[in-house]
Amino acid sequence: MSYVCGAITDLLPLLSMLIPPIRTVLLAQAMLLPLTATQAQNSTIAVPTTSATSQALIPDAAQPASTEAVSPFNMADNMELTYRVLSGNGKPVGELRQRVVTLALKEREESKKRIVPEYTASLKSGRYNTRNGLLHLQDLTFRTRRDTSFTDGLAELNTDALRSFRDRKLVYNPTPLAWPNAPTVGSTLPPGGISVQVSSSVVSIATVSTTIRKRKVVSGPTPLKTPAGTFSCYKVESARESATVPRPDMAIRTNVKQVDFYAPGVGIVRTEIYNKNGKLDEVRELAARNAGK
Fold this sequence. Notes:
The structure is a single chain. The protein is α+β, with helices and mostly antiparallel strands. It folds into 2 domains: 2-62, no CATH class; 80-97 and 146-289, YmcC-like fold. It has helices at residues 2-32, 37-42, 50-57; strands spanning 80-87, 92-111, 114-128, 134-145, 148-151, 169-175, 177-180, 188-189, 192-199, 204-226, 229-247, 250-263, 267-274, 280-289. Strands 1, 2, 3, 4, 5, 6, 7, 8, 9, 10, 11, 12, 13 and 14 form a 14-stranded antiparallel β-sheet that branches. A hairpin with a 2-residue loop joins strand 2 and strand 3.
């Protein structure tokens, strides 16, 4: 036993000389071997992943541009908008009240190779008379994609035209109205509105529609004072057509002029509707806009 212990004691200096080189070789081999996901997480040595390394090598010009979306007209959750409705001679005839119910950020497929963020705002919109009586209620959806906000074409519905079609099946087909964040004076905007297919259980009865077309940005931005404040607005003129078409060879159409005063980041501030004789018939003007919660 004493002989064995003495041999081990004699080898200790030799082992102490060999351990550092062996440790160095093992560490060098470990650095050359790829780490597993678990080893990378537990390792105290920061090792960049392949994707991060590749992305760092991409030139700045090749980096994808920011596509961050904002809510339509900078709306916030529970925000409330109130529009006072006036007759052509300025007499109050009611109010339009809108409240943001939900906000959601989704993705919209523009093509097979392009997906863009889309922000949506769901609103409850009610029209009230001067005695605070509810005349009609709507669920609207406003959207934002890229540099453009969209109002719901359903908001243009002429409810009076549907009164004679009670207890009928109604199928709504809205087309949103585009409102660019940076309008150009002299530019035209695409049409929008609402088409309603009226039918019974067995036969189609009529198509009732309201279309806002020939939309043109004619001036702006200019300050416009309202009860809700002063806003920098663009003036957009358009033709408003209301139609009831029982069959293709029979149509009842009414064409009037509509003027919208639009403030980017705020929305529609004032709307003027003129009758077929060119006389101001109705005004909707922003009276209050709270910040929501």
